[in-house]
Amino acid sequence: MADSFDGLKALDRNLLMDRMAEELPTIREQLGISVQKLAPKVGIEEKLNLVEKGAEKLQWSEYMSILFVLWNNDIGRGIIESKGLFPDALKKAMATNRNEHMPEG
Predict the structure, then answer these.
(1) What is the 3-state secondary structure (H, E, C) of the chain?
(2) pTM of this prediction?
(3) How many domains is the chain built from?
(4) Considering the domain boundaries, does residue 32 fall inside one?
């Protein structure tokens, strides 16, 4: 049986991070939120503007922070879904019940 993390291992994280950076200005515009309002919510106040301009690269943890902030908004969720920025393999890995794998003791 395939491990629930197999799909996650196959994800092109760099592609996802680059796509998020590229799409973020449009996503923000659709949500009506400025860089100044979004940046503190995702914890990268100094960097977000540079990421959007292509001067800095996102780290995986930053991608995940942006993803979850946007995912917690109904409109943001729809946008993220439509752009494929939260792939099914990542959703599946995030939904795995890790308690099943905890050692007893």
Answers:
(1) CCCCCHHHHHCCHHHHHHHHHHHHHHHHHHHCCCHHHHHHHHCCCCCHHHHHCCCCCCCHHHHHHHHHHHHCCHHHHHHHHHHCCCCHHHHHHHHCCHHHHCCCC
(2) 0.81
(3) 1
(4) yes
